[in-house]
Amino acid sequence: MKNFIENLPKAELHLHIEGTFEPALMFKIAKRNHIKIPYKSVKEIEDAYKFDCLQDFLDIYYQGASVLINEHDFYDLTYSYLEKCAIQNVRHTEIMFDPQTHTERGVAFETVINGISKACEDAKDKLGVSSLLIMSYLRHLSEKDAFKTLKQSLPFKDKITAVGLDSSEKGNPPSKFKNVFEASVKAGYIPLAHAGEEGNADYVWEALDLLKIKRIDHGNNALQDPQLIKEIIKRDIALTICPLSNTALQVVSDLKDHPLKKMMALGLKVTINSDDPAYFGGQVNQNYIEIQKALNLSKQDLYELAKNSFQYALLDDKTKQIYLDELETYYEKYN
Ligand code: HPA
Ligand code: ZN
């Protein structure tokens, strides 16, 4: 199974670039930028990666991102993740980035987007991994602030495919961002959002009805509401599930209790993703490996999950078909 997963062609659809920041790289970049971090060694950073809810994690995550200053910092961070994609046979990835985490500290939007997008272009050429970008608004900040970010992004519109919504969910419902999502769609971005990770089913409803999202990040709590499940299926919207993130943040207490299989049985379209791999104990393949073991998933299930990852990617149909054909050939040979 491990071998089957490692070589399975797949896409990653839920990944925060700031969440790929491995301690060793963080230490290196902090040093070259002469930024003091409250850790003396890589080991101390690793030891600090302990949290049991979304907010505790976010506090550490935003602090880590604060050493990113120059374009080549964003380039190195992104390229390092894309190298891991190549090794894992992630053929395509949809990368979220949080501009406000950086612009708030005085880093220019241009610095962030240029560093990330240059790494994506190089990875396409050198590693054969395709990618696109999702600009995520931080929901703990105001809608006005999100509007400012939208405006900053417009000169770089050709480099950004979609908008997302992340950070502290509880108390920051999708309705808070209705207007900026409407404006983002008008600007040509595809709307996506985290919903139902810590928030309840009503947040998922709002994300669907008010933000008009085309994919749900997490969505675990959609299971609270049978009517909502029906609606998600009817609209043919996928859920990007992150098993190791769910246990790290105690959205699910044990992988054995993870609702993934139940979701599949209900007819929901789900995908497997790493969310913030440097923080949650594994890249995307590790997520596949551990959830396979915990729920005793079959090769057919794994094939379904990988298939969804291409099917629900924000790619044109022709490109999707190329990846789906590659997956099909693989599955026929190794199942
Ligand atoms: N949830 C909300 N915000 C985030 C996450 C997450 O899992 N990861 C990075 N920002
Ligand atoms: Zn996430």
Structure explained in plain terms:
The chain has 335 residues and is an alpha/beta fold. It is built from 17 helices and nine strands. The strands form two sheets. A five-stranded parallel beta sheet has the order 1-2-3-4-5, with helices on both faces. Strands 6-7-8-9 form a four-stranded parallel beta sheet. Helix 9 links the parallel strand 4 and strand 5 (190-191). The protein is globular, with a radius of gyration of 19 Å. Residues 14, 16, 166, 194, 217, 275 line the site of zinc ion. Hypoxanthine (HPA) is lined by residues 16, 19, 54, 166-167, 194, 197, 245, 275-276.
Topology:
Elements: H1 2-7, E1 10-16, H2 23-32, H3 42-48, H4 54-65, H5 71-87, E2 90-97, H6 99-103, H7 109-127, E3 130-138, H8 143-153, E4 162-166, H9 178-186, E5 190-191, E6 193-195, H10 201-209, E7 215-218, H11 226-234, E8 238-241, H12 243-248, H13 260-266, E9 269-272, H14 277-280, H15 284-295, H16 299-311, H17 317-334
Parallel strand pairs: 1-2, 2-3, 3-4, 4-5, 6-7, 7-8, 8-9
The structure holds hypoxanthine and zinc ion.
